[in-house]
Amino acid sequence: MTSSADASTTGPRILASASTPFYIPIYFATALMAALDFSLSLLSFVLGDLAFHRVFTKGTSLPEDAALLGAIAGLITVPGIFVTRGYSALQGVYRSRYALKFVLPWAFAFFVIGWIAFLTQTTQAASRGTVTSAFIIGFLLALPTRSAALAYFKHQVSRSALATRRAILMVEETHSDVSQIVTSLKRSGIDIRAQLPFDGSGDENDILSNVKDVVDRCRSILAHENCEAIYLFIPWSDNNKYRLIRSALSKVPVQVYLFPDRHIDEILRGACIETAWGAGYQVQRTPLSLIDRALKRVLDVAAASTALLLLSPLMAAVAVLIKLDSTGPVIFKQNRRGFSGRQFKILKFRSMTVCENGDTVQQARRGDLRITRVGAFIRKTSIDELPQLWNVVRGEMSLVGPRPHALAHDDFYSQLIASYASRHHVKPGLTGWAQVNGLRGETPEVSDMEARVTKDLWYIDNWSILLDLRIILRTVFCVLSDKRAY
Description:
Elements: E1 22-23, H1 26-56, H2 63-83, H3 100-120, H4 128-158, E2 162-163, E3 165-172, H5 178-187, E4 190-198, H6 204-222, E5 229-233, H7 239-249, E6 255-259, H8 262-268, E7 272-274, E8 279-281, H9 290-325, E9 331-337, E10 343-349, H10 373-380, H11 388-393, E11 398-400, H12 407-414, E12 429-431, H13 433-436, H14 446-461, H15 465-481
Parallel strand pairs: 1-2, 3-4, 3-5, 5-6, 11-12
Antiparallel strand pairs: 7-8, 9-10
Helix pairs in contact: 1-2, 1-4, 2-3, 3-4, 6-7, 9-10
């Protein structure tokens, strides 16, 4: 159904939609998806009971008991999906980790069922075989089914064949992104029943008069159209204009949503904290969440401790060779910057005749006369870095991260490369993404260090525990074949 208003009449133009998508209210679409999840829960338990008793035990299945357990699991899973915002995709908000928003409530439901069975000692109705089979079947059945349903839903919405909300669009005539706004809203399942452009120029009386005309036209449309809301697009910097429009729209009995400018939208997407002064929005976050840091720390401690234990004979032999080869300490300590720029002393097997740790530190070069005979070998094989496993255990470093540089080099390159200091947003690493991509050794040109920083920042932005494992594995092969080590 298109608006019956004539665009040629005086006053604000009403641009009716060229086609009308099939309309399903958002609450009904959500209810359908919830019903699908509940049905999948029932089906998983019934199939799990049949699979366990007919295939494995050759016994008699109990479909009624299985259906009861499936209903209980569904009554736990569906609210859990609401809590994790797992149905937000139906509103056009296709968030990452969509599958996880089902997996977590599904797993929690089985935890609750198992706990209840333990407390009540009811193992006949909730046999471990049935519950385990249902848990596995649920994953195998529900995930692809839900993904297929969502994919079909997204396809219908993207081609404007399906809508879950109806709204009126109010936007200034001078707005340059009207067509893009309409397209984006349609792709979010919103049927724009009418567009009401208005003239926001002139003095306060002119703006108020224009807005009142638009509001009158809006009330006329609402008398014939079933719209849930008005979407308002005006600059947030013009507080006086917003106040006038807000006052005029108070006469319209529907919800009004004010959409932010692009730069404001980026800010509002950050996490929010409430204070007595007001709300504050996060404009920069730590690269790794608390859970991410905990996972990374567990990997660091477990792997570094194991490596120290296994490699201790080799490290003891290297220490003896260094002492016999040249005078000086076995372990070379140098100040470096770690997480958030905090200084620490990095540990290395001494490979040179000098132990520079001042304002001037010369990078090692190919054929460097300062490198000892043993030093040449341990640098070539990266054995000189093994003491840094103790830095990892102590929490000053991580197994994987941007390689720490001497303080003199930090001070020098931070003046030349704007993003250089961003490397300190995570702990420095014994190895890193730059190193396994061939960017190690001397950096005679600033562009060489820029390339290394680019790789380091990519690692920070794309971190995952799997990426760390991948880099550790590649490091092993790089040590054996890297010709840039000297």
